Amino acid sequence: MKPRIKTPQVSLRKLVPSALTVAAICLGLTAVKYALDHRPTEAMALLAGAAILDALDGRAARMLNATSKMGAEIDSLADAVNFGVAPAFIVYATLLEHNTSPLAWIVVLLYAVCIVLRLARFNAMLDVEGPAFEKEFFTGMPAPAGAIGAIGPLAAKMQFPGPWWDSHWGQVFICIWLIGVSLLVVSTVPMRKVHTFAIPPNMALPLLALLAILVAASVMYGYIVILVIIVAYVLHIPFAIRTKAWLRAHPEVWDDKPKEQRQARRAIRRAQPRRTDRGQRRSTARLRLRRPGPRR
């Protein structure tokens, strides 16, 4: 009698991350359906839900020790759908539906393709070894931020409605905006990862209170919150560029914690001569003046 071969069993616990990813895909595609039905508010809400599930599936996989190659591939495909295809269709169905120019569809395709290329580059760079500080930055705008940026004009139209959005210049603005977001997505501009920010312990409670206010505001004034997030993210880019450039020039602090890096940066800044002092010296030398005091 041949021994019975046991079929390997899969624990339901290991399916939780993939289930979250599949649910995110369903929300993203349903957002497209609501956009086609001219219900942009519900479409944006479903897209936000897909983004939340996308943020949770990876953490759930690590917490449950359920990471797998298949799960990583599903997550990458979900990002392409939720942050590339879905926002592209939402923008086209709600903002560019009356635009008869083929340029409108080309711009939408450009955005979706750039999101896919950005995800492919991210996956290819996972195995690339580099300095430790580079793990604190994204290369180019991440896909979720790109999706928020893409629907920014829709949020602005819902908050500030008017015939301008359907005018020639309104359509031009939407196309230029989407092209700009697409270029940021595939660019090499550094963007700071949110989880790398550190705050003093005494700022934890105020930050939680601010988060509660932000959640309440997102329910009552969702369009304004989207626009504020976009503005804040764009404003952080110059600081991210400067911070990465400084870290690249100071390898001695690569292994330090963020707090120690900030202290070293302040110390180096204090040790450098001020620009006003250098300017005064140049002016004094140019006018051949000397400070008062006994001649030597």
From TrEMBL:
EC number per UniProt: 2.7.8.8
UniProt membrane topology term: Multi-pass membrane protein
Keywords linked to the UniProt accession: Lipid biosynthesis, Lipid metabolism, Membrane, Phospholipid biosynthesis, Phospholipid metabolism, Transferase, Transmembrane, Transmembrane helix
Catalytic activity from the UniProt record: a CDP-1,2-diacyl-sn-glycerol + L-serine = a 1,2-diacyl-sn-glycero-3-phospho-L-serine + CMP + H(+)
UniProt cross-references to InterPro entries, sorted A to Z: CDP-alcohol_PTase-I (IPR050324), CDP-diaglyc--ser_O-PTrfase (IPR004533), CDP-OH_P_trans (IPR000462), CDP-OH_PTrfase_TM_dom (IPR043130), CDP_ALCOHOL_P_TRANSF_CS (IPR048254)
Single GO term (MF): CDP-diacylglycerol-serine O-phosphatidyltransferase activity
GO biological process: phospholipid biosynthetic process
Superkingdom field: Bacteria
Transmembrane segments: 12-32, 77-96, 102-124, 136-156, 168-186, 198-217
Recorded GO CC terms: endomembrane system; membrane
Stated family: Belongs to the CDP-alcohol phosphatidyltransferase class-I family.
Alphabetical list of NCBIfam families matching this protein: pssA (TIGR00473)
Listed name of the protein: CDP-diacylglycerol--serine O-phosphatidyltransferase
Taxonomic lineage: Bacteria, Bacillati, Actinomycetota, Actinomycetes, Mycobacteriales
